[in-house]
Amino acid sequence: MSIGETIFAGMYGRMSAATEEAGLADRRRALIAGARGRVLEIGGGLGANLPYYGPEVESVSLAEPGPAMARRLQARLDECRGELPFDVELVRAPAEELPFEPDSFDTVVSTLVLCAVGDQGRALSELRRVLRPGGQLLFLEHVRGEGRTGTLQDRVNWLNKLVVRCNCNRDTLRSIADSGFTVSSVEHGALPKTPPFVRPMVVGSAT
């Protein structure tokens, strides 16, 4: 466990609080309402999505690769276990190497994760593999913008990766389609209370 990872895990909640309060939490709630059956959430983080899973959800598997973040997530699960109306488990695994059989899940959720995975194409292939036929991917991701915004993102991506451990210039929507998913709905928006180079956002679903 690196010092940088430990510091980031400790600061993440405070870093994202203003964005959540300014509208991101509402975006999460609306997206997660579409989850059904057995759910896999990659990059579980601090469990920000947990309150929004509804009665249509049977179980949630949270895949979190980072030991520092996983430790904090486990503490959160220990606190709310018994209060959640579904089974929940934490699995230490990256999105690129999911320890699940093919066709295991009805829904996969990715919120602000595909910007940070080491190999986005491989991660998306894994999500397709573990989804059942007709299953859906629910995504909320900040992405590369157009024109001057995209150029700015390309220039500062190295700094963004250093500070917040993710890429700000990935064309994630195209990657989802290129990985064999059919995008069924998408809304373009902006992450509130964030710098311009991380503001472009897409929210949607794919099958």
Number of helices: 5
CATH class: Alpha Beta
CATH-assigned homologous superfamily? Vaccinia Virus protein VP39
Residues in helices, as a percent range: 25-40%
Could you describe the largest sheet, including whether it forms a barrel?
7 strands, mixed
CA distance, first residue to last residue: 35 Å
Provide the low-confidence segments as ranges.
none
The name CATH uses for the topology is Rossmann fold
Task: Please tell me the total number of domains.
Answer: 1
User: Could you report the average pLDDT, rounded to the nearest whole number?
Assistant: 91
Per CATH, which architecture?
3-Layer(aba) Sandwich
Q: Which sequence of SSEs, written as H and E, runs from N to C?
A: HEEHEEHEHHEE
Strand content: 25-35%
* DSSP, total strands: 7
Overall 3D form = globular
Spatial strand sequence of the major β-sheet: 3-2-1-4-5-7-6
Radius of gyration: 16 Å
Secondary-structure class: alpha/beta
